[in-house]
Every structure is written in C-alpha cells, then in structure tokens.
Amino acid sequence: NECLSSPCHINANCTDNESSFDCQCNVGFSGNGFNCSNINECLTSLCHPNASCADTEGSFVCQCNSGYSGNGLNCSNIDECLSKPCHVNASCTDNGGSYDCQCNPGFSGDGISNCANINECLNVSCHVNADCLDTPGSYICRCKTGFKGNGTFCESDLSEQGVMDLTMVIGIPAITLILLLVIAGLVYLYCHRIKKRCCGPRLIPTQHGEHDVILEMEATRSLNENQPLSQQPTATATDDLQYNGAGTTPALNKDNDGSLSSLL
After folding, report:
1. Average of per-residue pLDDT across 214-243
2. Where are stretches of biased composition, namely Polar residues (predicted)?
3. What is the 3-state secondary structure (H, E, C) of 111-129?
4. Class of domain 3-39
5. Going by C-beta distance under 8 Å and a sequence separation of 6 or more, which residues neighbour residue 206?
6. What is the pTM of this model?
7. Residue 219: exposed, middle, or buried by beta-carbon count in 10 A (0-12, 13-18, 19+)?
8. pLDDT tens figures, 49-88
C-alpha cells in the first residue's frame, strides 16, 4: 500500500490501487495531486450580488452586505425606514441596502438629527395689503382688515365698506337728534326756572271773539309782588281782570270813547 508512505500532496487524496496508487487534489485545490494549489472560488461569483465573498483554503465564505439579510447566497433588502431613523420633520427613503433622510419642505438640516423651521416670510412677498404669518414648515398670506382675497392678491372689501357707510348714515343723524333734544330740554328747564314764558305774551279772546286784552308778562307780576306791603301796587287796567281758566272770559264794558270803565 503505497499510500502508507503519503506520497501525495498535503492537499491531495491518495488512493491505493493494485500494485500502484493515485493522487488527486482535494476540492478547492488544483494540480496533479503531487502539487495542489488553492482555487479562488470567489472568482466564479458564487455569492449573491449583494453579498461579499471571502476566499479560504480550499473553500470560500459568502456574507450579505450591510442593509441586506440572508446566507450570502441569497440576500434580501432590509427596510431601515421601518425603524424611523430620520428626524420627526424629515422623510425617509429606503434604498438598496441603505436609506436616505431628507428634511421636509419648510425645514432645513441633515434630516437625521436636525431639521429646523425655515421662516419663509423673510423670503416671500405677500400682497401689499396682506400680512405674512410663518407656520411650521410653511407660511400664510392673509389679507388685512377691509380687504379680501387669497393673500397674494387683495382687493377692497366693498361689503364691509357698505356696512361702515350705513353706520355713518344712521349714526350721525341719530346723534344729532339726541343732542337737539338735550339742548331743547335744557332750554325748557332754564325758562321754567326763571318763570318766563318763552313764547311771549298770551292773547285772551273776549266773549265777542276779539283779542282785545293782552295779559302782562310774568316779569310785571313779579315786580308788583316785590313791593312793600304798606304800599299799594299801582292799579292797571288789567288788574281787575281775572282769568278763570280756558273757555271763561270776563265781560267788559266800554264807554263811548272806547276806554275801559269797569269790570262786571
């Protein structure tokens, strides 16, 4: 048995034959059995396209790349976005074996640890009659009071102007009327307090239907009342007249010359 003397290469197998032997290189090696060299199996791309091949003595190892899972001969993509690795204000896009984080519109940063709000009002222009309101990730153009539109275009609000005009039309006359009533009331109180008739002397009709007697003003009566008690007030033609109320008029006698004589 020639194989007992190990005539073959260390990486070969010896087979004893009748009066002879045979040397054959092991799997992963090539040669005549007496000389065997390693075969690089990775050159034949036995692994998955998304795996790496590591050649070893007489063999090889396939290992899935990062972002993939499997035995190296079969590798499937891992969806990293399921673990939400991006910022709360960013969007995650899964790629082949990887992922991408990008801040949402209106925010700026790396998408992973930082996404800060952008103040769009510093760079955008709303209408001249509108105000810009910055919001998280966006902005709002809002027409000012008295205008209507979408903020990028604003026009005068005629309906609101009409309400203001109606208020002016109704309000000014009403205020004027109130002021006039107040003034009239003050004038009335003033006249009543000083005991004067604001409308002038009164005419008392006689029984003949003529306005022959004119009553004296209250000022004359007040003057007579202020005289001393020892002094008799000066008699006048109208002192003997007595007014007994509406519809009652004393009768008068007249002489031939038309002068007042006596009161019946």
Report:
1. 46
2. 239-251
3. CCCCCEECCHHHCCCCCCC
4. mainly beta
5. 212, 213, 249, 251, 252
6. 0.43
7. exposed
8. 999 999 988 889 999 999 999 999 999 999 999 999 999 9
